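Lab meeting, item 3. Inverse folding demo.
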């Protein structure tokens, strides 16, 4: 671990400075990039379906993200690998966040990864469902934006309101508990459904 700036510790991931900088993203940059992507998705899907159908397709996309979020966090980010390369991969993907959870530039997925995954998903949905695929993608993307926004807020912003307080407590238990659990960031009910909820008393 090395020091960047005056007081914020940061786990160094790459020796190459360009690669290192590509692992960092500010909330402002995240907001600009994803505002543009969401606007493009709205434009691409405009008029593709009647309002109720469009709302349903967006809801399906959000639901798909919710389960993707849980599965990704549980089964990939916390995958137990024995090889040195495997452990290095998991540290690059997520372990560094657990090592330094307070780093504001690593509380959000780097655009290289998030946009790099979003584009193929959008293209695949569009190829399979035409313009309606953009409605599914819009829901999926909205789910992702909510996920990273909530995650950033859990670590960096003061808690206000019962809902945000509950989400933050749920996630902080994930960091502080010695047990694996509390993988969901937004749809925290999934941890109860799948038996991975970390109770406060534990």
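The presenter then showed the designed sequence:
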């Amino acid at each position: 671990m090395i020091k960047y700036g005056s007081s914020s510790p940061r786990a160094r991931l790459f020796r190459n400075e360009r690669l290192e900088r590509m692992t960092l993203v500010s909330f402002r940059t995240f907001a600009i990039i994803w505002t543009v992507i969401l606007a493009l998705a709205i434009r691409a899907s405009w008029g593709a379906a009647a309002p109720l159908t469009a709302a349903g397709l967006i809801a399906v996309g959000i639901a798909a993200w919710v389960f993707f979020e849980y599965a990704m966090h549980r089964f990939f980010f916390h995958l137990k690998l024995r090889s040195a390369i495997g452990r290095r991969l998991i540290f690059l993907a997520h372990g560094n966040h657990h090592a330094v959870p307070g780093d504001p530039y690593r509380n959000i997925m780097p655009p290289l990864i998030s946009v790099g995954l979003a584009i193929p998903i959008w293209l695949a949905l569009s190829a399979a469902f035409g313009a309606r695929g953009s409605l599914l993608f819009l829901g999926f993307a909205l789910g992702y934006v909510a996920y990273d926004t909530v995650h950033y807020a859990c670590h960096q912003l003061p808690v206000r309101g019962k809902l945000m307080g509950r989400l933050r407590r749920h996630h902080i238990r994930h960091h502080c508990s010695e047990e694996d659990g509390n993988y969901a960031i937004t749809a925290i009910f999934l941890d109860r459904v799948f038996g991975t909820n970390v109770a406060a008393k534990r």
